[in-house]
Amino acid sequence: MTELPIRKDLVGKSPYGAPQIAVPVRLNTNENPFGPSPELVAELAKAVSELGPNLNRYPDRDATELRADLANYLNTESQVSLAADNIWPANGSNEVMQQLLQLFGGPDKSLVAFDPTYSMYEDYCRNTFTKYLSVARNEDFTIDKSVLDSALALHPDIIVLTSPNNPTGTIIDMSDIDYLLANFPGVVVVDEAYAEFRPAGTPSAVSRLAKNPRLVVVRTMSKAFSYAGARVGYAATSSEIVQAIQLVRLPYHLSTVTQAVARVALRFSDELQGQVTLLRKERDDLASWLKEQGFEVAPSGANFLLFGTFGDRNQVWEQLVEQGVLIRQTGPSGWLRVSIGTPEENQAFKTALLQVTNRTNGK
Ligand SMILES: *Cc1c(COP(=O)(O)O)cnc(C)c1O
């Protein structure tokens, strides 16, 4: 094979990606297990057929209507008062994050994240020549002021807090986010991909936007909204940052189709909230069950659970795949992550796990 003249730091690297294996029960990428309802699908079809005749034109570069709808959604969801110019949408929150790194990162800049966490942060840094640094969370995966102080001591330009965190599910206390906002002069990014699954009464970092122009809260429609396939994520931040992101975004980055289908889903947010409530309950029930079986389970405010620990997690993972259940090997060694599925899928997971680990219920 000929060697391609690619960037030196990319030689020998493998692309990000969970295995996509066609088994009956797929609980590996934290998707919402419920697809859009027939009513939503009908509205999608209508919206796409209406815009079809205008697809010869470029999309609204500023996604004005979608941004207004997203602001309304957040205002209701988190009792804030944001406007369209506080919102910046892109093709998944992954693209938003990469744009933020293109804007605030670069060869002389650094970012700190808190391990174990989402592995993509390191990739965004690599792609934008930003130095990636990490600070370990406490043993129980929490973050507190001493952990934050270790991050501050590295004098980074950007700090990313993930709450609820992936793959641990851990929620960061708002008092710790406030501590960071008060003591860090750089850009604070709070990745709230799983925010809708947080326990009732837990505040969102969007409640801190009004007073902190260097705070960016990143959200997505991939998880709670059952819309991973549509690729829509967004930042909620100051209008100054929204303006600045436009320096690095590709022209017309968000297609007319994406903008329209996102707006349709937002009209159905009440219906989707019902599923979120059910998934939260399934999560809490599954966590209790796992503990009853003697597993360790990290407290989760997301739509997945990190559990363990296993001497050979790869073997457990492989045997679950043989039983038709796909979960994820991620996080510290010995732990596995399972996404919350439908009640039937969760039951299939339990049955398969008991089989694989030779435990009998009640023992
Ligand atoms: C799933 C996930 C995302 C979402 O990415 P999209 O590009 O919006 O699909 C972002 N951050 C974390 C931590 C995630 O787990």
Structure description:
- With 363 residues, the chain is α/β, with parallel strands linked by helices.
- The chain has two domains: 8-30 and 270-360, Aspartate Aminotransferase, domain 1; 38-267, Aspartate Aminotransferase, domain 2 (3-Layer(aba) Sandwich), CATH 3.40.640.10.
- It is 37% helix and 14% strand.
- The protein is built from eleven helices and twelve strands.
- It has helices spanning 38-51, 64-78, 92-104, 120-127, 145-152, 174-183, 239-245, 256-267, 269-292, 313-322, 343-357; strands spanning 25-26, 87-90, 110-115, 131-136, 158-162, 187-191, 215-220, 233-237, 296-297, 304-308, 325-326, 336-339.
- It has a seven-stranded mixed beta sheet with strand order 2-8-7-6-5-3-4. It has a three-stranded antiparallel beta sheet with strand order 9-10-12, with helices on one face.
- Helix 1 (38-51) packs antiparallel against helix 8 (256-267) and helix 3 packs across helix 4.
- The N and C termini lie far apart (56 Å).
- The chain binds pyridoxal-5'-phosphate.
- Pyridoxal-5'-phosphate is lined by residues 30, 92-94, 118, 162, 166, 191, 193, 220, 222-223, 228, 233.
- Pyridoxal-5'-phosphate binds next to helix 3.
Describe how the helices and strands are arranged.
Layout: E1 25-26, H1 38-51, H2 64-78, E2 87-90, H3 92-104, E3 110-115, H4 120-127, E4 131-136, H5 145-152, E5 158-162, H6 174-183, E6 187-191, E7 215-220, E8 233-237, H7 239-245, H8 256-267, H9 269-292, E9 296-297, E10 304-308, H10 313-322, E11 325-326, E12 336-339, H11 343-357
Parallel strand pairs: 1-11, 3-4, 3-5, 5-6, 6-7
Antiparallel strand pairs: 2-8, 7-8, 9-10, 10-12
Helix pairs in contact: 1-8, 2-8, 3-4
The structure holds pyridoxal-5'-phosphate.
